[in-house]
Amino acid sequence: MAEEDGYSSRCDLCDTEVIHSMAELLLRGLATASVDSTTGDIFKSASSVAVTVKTELENYLLGRTEALIRESVDGGEDHSDKLMKASTRPTEFLSDLIDDFVASKRNVLSHVSGFLSSESRLRKVNDFMQKKEMENVWALDVRKATAETILESIDIKCIFHCPERFVEQNELADHRSQCKFRVVNCKNDGCSASFSAIHIEEHDSICPFKALPCDQLCDQHVMRCEMDKHCATVCPLKLINCPFYQVGCETAFPQGNLDNHCLKLLQTHMLYVLQATTRQNATVDDMNQRLQLLEKAQSLNEMSGALDVRSLTLITKEQEAKIKKLERDIKTQEAKIKKLENEFRSRNA
Fold first, then answer.
1. How far is CA 284 from CA 184, 278, 280, 288, in A?
2. GO molecular function of the protein, one example (predicted)?
């Protein structure tokens, strides 16, 4: 909305990307200050102090910003470096101010060694941010309004906001329709991004939905996000191997030339197939011969094993026969000995 100051209407358009970044910093600052100021406090929670911390943070940032501008204008303390940073890197300047505010809100327990860099603290801050955003404790539009107020105060070079003023409302309306900070939508099909007109070229250079000439120089235009897939699959200029590569044709060519290549080299491909078939048949014959040799070798081994078993059986039977003959001979000798003993006793009697 244009502001009326009694003499002119001001174009209050700002760089939407910078405003959005600053608005996110404000929410993170609120969450961090609320968590750090109540760490370990059994009587307070981050949620119970969020509203108060929000007001204090907003007043602190606006006060510090106004003080910096006022002192610089009055020619008092030299703040040239801070003012230069504020006017050229506003998000960094705001981040520094928020860090100062958060440090001032930390209680004793939050200063415990390791807590400020712990994953637990970061997780609590992130969870609290999401909770406050859903509860709309500090609405995005309100945060953006605060960010715009701060940005317009520190942007002395008018890099991120429009300073133009007009006497007539129609002049203001005409200007806003052409202002470099007006909000525009991406014109690429499928892209829903919106941004300040000053970033049109920057966005267009990275927009994933931007239609570009094929990287492989085919006659198609392809979205940036689909380019790699197009070039690797359907692009007619993608290099492929001949379907007869396995049988001898090692030619590579754009896949759009496949039909022409196969038609042109039909006889050559048939020759490759014939040669491959001949080699395959020879290989089959060789394998058959090897298989037959293996079968014969296996048969011989089995026969050899069988002969070995029969030989051992015969030897065993022969030995058993010899043992039985020895046993019979022993019994015969024992009988003769007993007969002689009996005869000797009868003579002596």
1. 72, 10, 6, 6
2. zinc ion binding
Residue 217 gets the label, from left (phi > 0), alpha (psi -120 to 50) or beta, of left
* Residue 77 counted as domain residue: yes
Bridge pairing between strands 165-166 and 194-196: unpaired
Show the domain range for 42.
9-184
Closest by CA to 36, choosing from 118, 119, 116, is 116
Per DSSP, the three-state class of 132 is helix
> Residue ranges of the alpha helices (H) in the chain?
16-37, 46-74, 80-88, 90-105, 119-135, 140-154, 169-178, 200-204, 227-232, 258-264, 266-348
In this structure, is residue 288 part of a structural domain?
A: no
The 10s digit of each residue's pLDDT in 33-51 is 999 888 877 888 999 999 9
Contacts of 230 (CB under 8 A, 6+ apart): 214, 220, 222
Dump pLDDT digits (tens) for 140-161. 999 999 999 999 988 888 899 9
Residue type, 138: W
C-alpha distance from residue 89 to each of 38, 77, 85, 149, 195 (Å): 31, 21, 5, 16, 19
In-domain check, residue 155 = yes
| CA 156/CA 69 separation, integer angstroms | 9
By CB atoms closer than 10 A (0-12, 13-18, 19+), residue 21 is middle
pTM of the model: 0.64
Check: CB of residue 247 under 8 Å from CB of residue 273. yes
Question: Is 76 within 8 Å of 3 (Cβ atoms)?
Answer: no
User: With contact defined as beta carbons under 8 Å apart, do 245 and 255 qualify?
Assistant: no
SS (H, E, C) 272-321: HHHHHHHHHHHHHHHHHHHHHHHHHHHHHHHHHHHHHHHHHHHHHHHHHH
* Tally of domains within the chain: 1
Asked, for residue 228, whether it belongs to a domain, the answer is no
CA 38 – CA 108 distance, rounded (Å): 10
